[in-house]
């Protein structure tokens, strides 16, 4: 896996990344750090990627478990260290899983499998952060 990140110029702190799969992603800094607030911060992208990684796993596991899942979202709330390097110290994941006749134990199992075995991003974050999660099921 590889990507290229390029600075967009001297009038700010914006960067554009081209992923190995050919997609472009913009990032920018906060105004107090010389940025123009035109795109997500790089550390926000870490959370975005982690949320995408774990949500992907949960949906895949639920489908393989023959659960009738119709929607899944995860909200991540993170705290960072106050001193450099400002690593994540706590991340809470709140999953909202929608479907028909969803088994709470199967949803919990899918989330645990993602966090403990499959989601590379959350497993890496767990090296510096306390990870917690909860979930809700919306029956349709």
Write the layout of secondary structure elements.
Layout: E1 3-7, E2 15-19, E3 24-27, H1 42-64, E4 68-80, E5 88-100, H2 104-118, H3 120-125, E6 130-139
Parallel strand pairs: 5-6
Antiparallel strand pairs: 1-2, 2-3, 4-5
Helix pairs in contact: 1-2
Keywords:
about 35% strand, GMP Synthetase, Chain A, domain 3, about 140 residues, 3-stranded antiparallel beta sheet, 2 domains, alpha+beta, 3 helices, 3-stranded mixed beta sheet
What's the total helix number? 3
Label the overall shape.
elongated
N/C terminus separation: 39 Å
CATH superfamily of the largest domain: K homology (KH) domain
Tell me the quaternary state.
single chain
- State the helical fraction: 25-40%
**What is the CATH level 1 assignment of the largest domain?**
Alpha Beta
According to DSSP, the number of beta strands is: 6
Q: Count the domains.
A: 2
Give the overall average pLDDT. 97
Poorly predicted ranges (pLDDT <50, ≥5 residues)?
Answer: none
Spatial ordering of strands, largest sheet = 1-2-3
CATH topology of the largest domain: GMP Synthetase, Chain A, domain 3
Q: What proportion of the residues form beta strands (DSSP E)?
A: 35-45%
Order of helices and strands: EEEHEEHHE
CATH architecture of the largest domain: 2-Layer Sandwich
Structural class: alpha+beta
Gyration radius over CA = 17 Å
The description of the largest β-sheet is: 3 strands, antiparallel
């Amino acid at each position: 896996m590889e990507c290229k990140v390029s600075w967009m110029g001297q009038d700010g702190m914006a960067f554009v990344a081209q992923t190995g799969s050919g997609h472009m992603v913009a990032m920018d800094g906060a105004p107090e750090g010389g940025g123009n607030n035109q795109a997500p911060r790089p550390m926000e992208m870490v959370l975005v990627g982690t949320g995408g990684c774990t949500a992907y796993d949960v949906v895949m596991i639920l489908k393989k478990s023959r659960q009738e899942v119709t929607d899944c979202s995860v909200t991540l709330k993170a705290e960072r260290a106050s001193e450099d390097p400002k690593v994540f110290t706590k991340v809470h994941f709140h999953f909202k899983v929608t479907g028909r006749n969803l088994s709470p134990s199967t949803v919990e199992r899918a989330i645990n499998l993602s966090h403990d075995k499959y989601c590379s991003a959350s497993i890496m974050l767990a090296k510096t952060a306390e990870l917690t999660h909860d979930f809700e099921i919306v029956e349709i």
